[in-house]
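queue> holo job accepted (adenosine-5'-diphosphate)
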Amino acid sequence: MTVDGQRIVVLNSGSSSLKFAAYRPGRDGERLLSGEVEGIGGKARLQMGGTAKDVTAADPVAAMHVIADLPDGPMAGDVVAFGHRIVHGGPDLDRPVLVDEPALARIDAVSPLAPLHNPPALAVLRGLRDRFPGIPHVACFDTAFHRGHPPVADRFAIPEALYQEGVRRYGFHGLSYQYIAGVLPPEIAGGRVAVAHLGSGASMCGLVNRRSVDSSMGFTALDGLPMGTRSGSLDAGVILWLQQHKGWPVDRVEAFLYHDCGLKGMSGLSNDIRVLLASETPSARMAVDYFVYHVARTAGALASSMGGIDGLVFTAGIGEHSDIIRARVLDRLGWMGFRVDAAANAKAPGRITGADSRLPAYVIPTDEERVIGNATCALVGV
Ligand code: ADP
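queue> job finished
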């Protein structure tokens, strides 16, 4: 029985943001509040319930304390469990886990596979254990949803020994894809659906009968589509060239690939596609063209992985909000049978292709926090 004030709290640590939500216990329990500290390490701002204010948060743990201190925030009540998004679960963590010392050791062990993502999330988790002792924590992994890929989609063309050491295609954004898989329109739910999660990080996933069969992301969240500041797929020879001919040390190459490439690097202007769409400069146009080209190209690749395609779903920041990008992607995919309906596309979410379209495309807002919240309730039994 839930007591008034009881809640579960979900934390979603990004590279410079900490999103949070509080829910009543129980599957699909009422969402009490949600918000975000963004700009961590720089000009940090807290957003919650339609208001925003500047805060001091030098790192993710400081941001967690800002949230925990709020008199009307997620922790201002009887917290029965915390749920966390952990980007990388490695080869074996294929479902959410209740966090105990052995589980923490397993998550620590795979953190080198996601050096920029796992450590801040784990630091927040440990900070919360110190501040609120005795409350259970559940870890949910972005890689878990993809662990059922056929072996051929799980491999690189490298020796088996490296695969056994963990060098394999994991796929990410799995919590988002799991949410979308659970709310697909009935007419395509059992079919072959390409889902485009286009946010500041971007990837695509092939779903067959709601299960992931392939993903555009592989070993790390650098792979696949171009992103706000990440390169997406790059010939490995480029990295060798940067090291051998430009003499860049590995730290510089890493910072470059994660922070200075993608839309920002190509345009020399911004990582925000809205800024690029509003710009007339050739480099901004090229960055947008490249993004659209690769989303469409990846849809084609996933159609092949899935043995055909019955529909396409757009989600996350760009996917949910940019009718221009959606229309341009669908125009490129006209050969496949998509025909955008301009009016429907302008007032998404929902179906954005018309009656004359052989295949349907939809905008479906994602909700990773809800997936984490439900998994947390299931594991702690509330
Ligand atoms: P994250 O990957 O950080 O969770 P989101 O899914 O929230 O990101 O997406 C953030 C991105 O969405 C921003 O970088 C911005 O480019 C894009 N975005 C947000 N709103 C719009 C909009 N109205 N039109 C186009 N792009 C948008």
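queue> Residues 14, 199-201, 228, 272-274, 316-318, 321-322 surround adenosine-5'-diphosphate (CB under 6 Å).
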